[in-house]
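Tokens as discussed.
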């Protein structure tokens, strides 16, 4: 994915500037914990609650952070009301998410934003780095898609695996067979989500109770949207 590390850097710039060097963070739809990994490298005094619904990704995240007392894990489906019931403790200084919320349908995502307004403390931030193409610029989006395919082809030639190839490697690993079967059932049931332009996100975040939101970084079709609680 082009610009992945750049987006994480911007996300953590925002966190450090907005809420300081020892934030309590919710790593939302954490996958294998990519955000928490970079958070701890940048801000070693931070703490993270990492939440996802996928048992394989959670198993890998749990293993790779084994013994690290700064992180705890919660399994929950963000599209279900009550997803935040198992979050203990005070509201978060920052809720961070990347390449994930486009998996969701519009109504559950708008509901999630309303829930996040209760989960982030006043003055805290929600940062969403995701694919947010603007339907008003189809020609530019097509150029971006061509450029992205070129980037992916070069990365593949250099040995990178894509999301599907990565899952094929997981499926072939006997240590992961039980969790993989559970993940497969979730992935097979999953109804593909929808992308929205930046304006959709900022509008829904305002309705949800974030008084200000805007763009901290963007390319043609990806953006980092920051909402301040
Ligand atoms: C492409 S991964 C990104 C993970 C991580 N943020 C990263 O950048 O490496 C998308 C993640 O979103 C999670 N996810 C998607 N929909 C979800 C939902 N409704 N509830 C919880 N997690 C969800 C998936 O399980 C997956 O781990």
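Sequence:
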């Amino acid at each position: 994915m082009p610009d992945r590390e750049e987006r994480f850097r911007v996300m953590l710039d925002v966190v450090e500037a907005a809420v300081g060097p020892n934030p309590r963070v919710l790593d939302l739809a954490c996958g294998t914990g990519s955000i928490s990994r970079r958070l701890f490298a940048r801000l070693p005094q931070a703490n993270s609650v990492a939440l996802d619904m996928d048992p394989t990704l959670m198993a890998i995240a749990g293993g790779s952070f084994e013994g690290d007392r700064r992180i705890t894990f919660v399994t929950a489906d963000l599209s279900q009301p009550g997803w935040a019931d198992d979050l203990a403790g005070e509201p978060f200084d920052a809720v961070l998410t990347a390449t994930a919320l486009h998996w969701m349908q519009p109504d559950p995502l708008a509901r999630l934003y309303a829930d996040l307004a209760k989960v982030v403390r006043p003055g805290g931030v929600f940062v969403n780095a995701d694919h947010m193409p603007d339907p008003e610029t189809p020609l530019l989006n097509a150029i971006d898609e061509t450029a992205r395919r070129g980037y992916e082809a070069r990365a593949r030639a250099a040995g990178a695996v894509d999301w599907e190839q990565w899952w094929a490697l997981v499926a072939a690993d006997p240590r992961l067979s039980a969790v993989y079967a559970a993940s497969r059932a979730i992935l097979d049931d999953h109804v593909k989500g929808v992308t929205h332009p930046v304006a959709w996100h900022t509008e829904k975040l305002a309705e949800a109770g974030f008084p200000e939101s805007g763009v901290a970084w963007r390319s043609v079709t990806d953006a980092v949207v920051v909402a301040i609680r």
